[in-house]
Amino acid sequence: MGKFNKDWPEIRTALDRWVAFLNKARDLDKATLPKQLAGESALTKAVAELERMGMDTQERAIYEGEVRKLMVDTIQLRDAENRGVQQGLQQGVQQGLQQGVQQGLQQGVQHTVLRLLKRRFGEPPADITAKLQELRQEALDDLVLDLFDFTSYADVERWFARN
Fold it and tell me: Which residue has the higher pLDDT, 143 or 24?
């Protein structure tokens, strides 16, 4: 590699960058890294590693302590993030189940009311079926109680007009 004599502006290829790095490694540091080498992340990492290797014992201990702290912080952050995601998923599943149970109960009551009306008065008009499906749970519960007082679909229509 001693025959490689290109100056920084002449370096164009990846091979040129690596040979220049190997030839001039002693003179390189992150702060003064030529733009021809700075564009390649592997070379930037190699320069940083050379700097680390050139540290004295005390500097290396400080550096390694900082690296360990960063690793611990990263792990703790990732763990906290995972816990948050898991809690969010659990809450979402629980909320979805509750909504599903409520909807299922409401549909069951609607179905039962329709069956009772059909048995008592015959096939229900389409508008009563549609109105029944729009009722909220509280109104549906009231309808169930009032159902036994009805004598015809006219009573059901009057109930919907009042409620």
Answer: 143
Integer Cα distance of 98 and 92 in angstroms? 10
Residue 127 has a pLDDT of 92
Exposure of 110 in the CB half-sphere (CA atoms within 13 A): 18
> Which pLDDT band, with edges at 50, 70 and 90, does 1 fall under?
low
Q: Where along the chain do its domains lie?
A: 8-54, 95-162
Between CA 163 and CA 146 the distance in angstroms is 12
Sign of CA dihedral 143, 145, 148, 149: negative
Joined together, the tokens standing for residue 147 give: 């159902």
Task: Output the pTM of the full model.
Answer: 0.47
Cβ atoms of 107 and 136 within 8 Å: the answer is no
